[in-house]
Structure formats: C-alpha cells, structure tokens
Design goal:
The chain has helices spanning 21-28, 53-71, 136-140, 142-150, 189-197, 204-213; strands spanning 17-18, 36-40, 43-47, 78-80, 86-88, 92-94, 98-102, 117-118, 127-132, 154-159, 164-171, 174-177. It has one domain (9-216): tt1808, chain A, CATH 3.90.1570. It has 6 helices and 12 strands. The chain is of the alpha+beta class. The radius of gyration is 17 Å and the shape is globular.
C-alpha cells in the first residue's frame, strides 16, 4: 500500500540536534509552556507547541473517534494518555499527540516518581498517533524511526493538509503501511480518511458521521 504525500519545502528541514541522555533530562525538567521533547539515542528534538487551530481541531476529532469506537465495545478497557512523555531510559523518549492503551495494564503514577512513563516498567501502548500539520516530514521520518525503536505496534500519522491517515503496523522489526487497523480490529483506515473529508470548520459533525458509519462494523468479542 503506497500513499502519495505532499510535504511543504520548509517542513523538510529537520530540527534534531546532538545531545546525550543527561542533556535530555535537564531539558525535560525545564520545559517551556506547551513544549514537547523527543529523544532518540544521541539526538534531541524540541517541539515548541502552539500548533494552532487546525492541530487542535484534528487532535480532538481523533479523541472523539476513539471514544465512539470503544462506545460500541463497553467490555473493552482502554486508556488515552495523549501528550504523556514515554521514556526508554538512556535511549528514547517521546510525547505523542495520541497514546492508546487497550486491554488494561496501562501506566499508573505513584507519588515521588517522575511524571513520565518508564517503558522499562510498563508495557508500550498499543497505538500512538501524531497530528501532522506543520511536522509531517519529521513525523514520517525521525519520529517514525523513534516509535519503531520503542517497539510501538501501530503508528498513525494524520496528515492535516492532505486529509490522509498514514497507518503503519510493526511486522518483523519494521513498519509496514496498512489499510486496516490492528489495534482497532476491523477499522478500515479509509473510513478515517473519509471522516477527514467531512471536516469543514467543525469536528463534531465529522465525528458523528463516523459514529454512524461504524454501527454495522463487526464488534470485537472479549
């Protein structure tokens, strides 16, 4: 499955810089408002946030989409931790827009611990996603490699300008693009893109349209 992606020329410039884990820890403890930090082996990238209206609108659309999806399967446990920092100490760190745990055993915070998910102690999420408004090139390159290194089973890139969802599943140590979600079994990626096509200036009606379309899809049996 191959999908054409148009990337604006300025977005091709990577903003990753050399850093070690100690420098990462110093930076993450002194984040500016709405900043996110990503780290992979010996490089660091600072996302300054403030993505704007489009990023917020599409981000919340997918919150609604996931909620409507699991409303059909009330016996399935799920936990959304979007924006939470996940770390593989000494090697990787990320703060995806969407972090989805399915089936329980999602991370819990204890007083005195860092307010970040230690992936040496907790399992990786079943799905992560990035809302790509101004970061498409990085989301399809460096961040994709980062989530691959973390062993994330499924990764979505939501292309805001192209109204596309680029979904990847982990197969034999590498990502392959897929036309149907594995984490959300039975969900065609095409249906997500059709929902994006219905986005005008509001995300609520697009989400309601999605909710209506999935009523006849098979439900996962626990």
């Amino acid at each position: 499955m191959n999908t054409s992606v148009i990337i604006d020329a300025p977005a091709r410039i990577s903003s990753w810089h050399n850093a070690n884990w100690s420098e990462y820890l110093e930076r993450i403890e002194n984040l500016g408002k709405q900043e996110r930090v990503f780290f992979n082996l010996d490089t660091i990238w600072i996302d300054i946030g403030n993505e704007g209206i489009n990023h917020a609108r599409f981000n919340e659309l997918f919150t609604l989409i996931l909620g409507f999806w699991f409303a059909r399967q009330t016996n399935v446990k799920f936990d959304l931790l979007g924006g939470c920092v996940m770390e593989k100490p000494q090697t990787q760190s990320a703060a995806p827009d969407k972090v989805l745990y399915i089936g329980g055993n999602s991370p819990r915070w204890q007083p005195g611990e860092p307010r970040r998910v230690n992936l040496d102690l907790w399992r990786v999420p079943d799905l992560v996603a990035e809302i790509s408004d101004t970061t498409l090139a990085i989301d399809l390159d460096e961040k994709k490699q980062l989530y691959l290194a973390l062993g994330i089973p499924e990764y979505w890139v939501i292309d805001v300008k192209g109204r596309q969802v680029l979904a990847f599943r982990l197969v034999d140590g590498k990502y392959e693009q897929c036309s149907e979600s594995v984490a959300l079994a039975g969900l065609p990626i095409e249906l997500l893109e059709q929902t994006l096509d219905r986005m005008d200036n509001e995300n609520g009606n697009a989400a309601l349209w999605f909710a209506a379309q999935i009523q006849n899809l098979p439900r996962e049996i626990e």
